[in-house]
């Protein structure tokens, strides 16, 4: 999920700068630049981005773009009341979060409005997205209380993401035009199935913990509705920060071939 934006927006707006600033990784990554006035520029960008995705696992330290395999988050919080589910009401806090599977990103479609600095994309994944970390949870699931802390694993099978809107604005620096992302609207639009495992529920009571994990997995669609807003918000916020750091080093006019 995370990677729709890391892969679509970061790559579209920032990865091309790897042609200018060589990555510190031993593996050289080649990004084919596209011409802004090409009538097929969207198709060119889609192909160029797709070709480079598998090589982005190690990231670009010089551009401050982190590794995406795994992609690491310091924390992730699902707060009671943000989700639309009425059957699940939980406060779930995660730390030391790792997301695996982002290099399997597929750009299904991409559309740009280069004159207005906008981008839209649809993204899927060849592999499941696996989210692991340390958690604490309190709340209710189907009127049953749930408490615990420990290791957790969340697996999103065949997720699909819509980058509905990425809006940027230009600014001048040293006589050149740069851009800054102001807004990103990211939606998790479909998941074939969600699998979840929370260790050490109810102070390590194995019977209660196993029963609650079974209930959570049997009712994964309502659980997903509770989790979605936090995932979307966290990924969008972090991605905007990463993109803008990378774009500080690359003028907009250098992103496209002339």
Provide an overview of this structure:
By secondary structure, this protein is α+β, with helices and mostly antiparallel strands. It has a single domain, classed as TULIP domain (Bactericidal permeability-increasing protein, domain 1). Helices cover 25% and strands 39% of the residues. It has 4 helices and 9 strands. The strands form 2 sheets. It has a 5-stranded antiparallel β-sheet with strand order 1-2-5-6-9, with helices on one face. Strand 5 (129-141) and strand 6 (144-157) form a beta hairpin. It starts with a helix and ends in an 11-residue tail after the last helix. The model is unreliable at 1-26 (pLDDT under 50).
Overall tally of structural domains:
1
The number of helical segments is 4
Strands of the largest sheet, in order across it?
A: 1-2-5-6-9
Global mean pLDDT? 81
| Largest sheet descriptor | 5 strands, antiparallel
Helix content: 25-40%
So, CATH architecture?
A: Super Roll
Output the CATH topology.
Bactericidal permeability-increasing protein, domain 1
What structural class do the secondary elements suggest? Answer: alpha+beta
Q: Helix and strand string, N-terminal first? A: HHEEEEEEEEEHH
Characteristics of this structure?
258 residues; alpha+beta; Bactericidal permeability-increasing protein, domain 1; five-stranded antiparallel beta sheet; four-stranded antiparallel beta sheet; 4 helices; elongated
């Amino acid at each position: 999920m995370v990677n729709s934006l890391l892969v679509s927006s970061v790559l579209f707006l920032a990865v091309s700068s790897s042609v200018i600033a060589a990555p510190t990784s031993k593996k050289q990554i080649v990004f084919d630049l596209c011409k802004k006035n090409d009538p097929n520029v969207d198709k060119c960008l889609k192909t160029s981005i797709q070709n480079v995705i598998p090589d982005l696992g190690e990231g670009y330290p010089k551009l401050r773009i982190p590794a995406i395999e795994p992609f690491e988050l310091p924390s992730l919080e699902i707060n009671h009341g943000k989700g639309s589910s009425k059957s699940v009401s939980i406060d779930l806090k995660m730390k030391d979060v790792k997301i695996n599977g982002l290099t399997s990103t597929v750009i299904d479609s991409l559309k740009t409005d280069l004159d207005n600095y906008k981008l839209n994309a649809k993204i899927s994944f060849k592999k499941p997205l696996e989210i692991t970390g340390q958690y604490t949870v309190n709340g209710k699931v189907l009127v049953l209380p749930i408490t615990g802390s420990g290791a957790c694993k969340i697996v999103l099978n065949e997720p699909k993401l819509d980058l509905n809107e990425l809006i940027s604005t230009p600014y001048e620096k040293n006589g050149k035009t740069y851009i800054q992302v102001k807004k990103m609207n990211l939606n998790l639009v479909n998941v074939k199935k969600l699998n979840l495992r929370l260790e050490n529920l109810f102070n390590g009571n194995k019977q209660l913990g196993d029963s609650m994990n079974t209930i959570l997995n049997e009712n994964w669609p309502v659980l997903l509705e509770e989790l979605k807003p936090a995932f979307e918000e966290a990924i969008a916020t972090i991605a905007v920060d990463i993109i803008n750091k990378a774009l500080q080093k690359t003028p907009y006019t250098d992103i496209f071939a002339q």
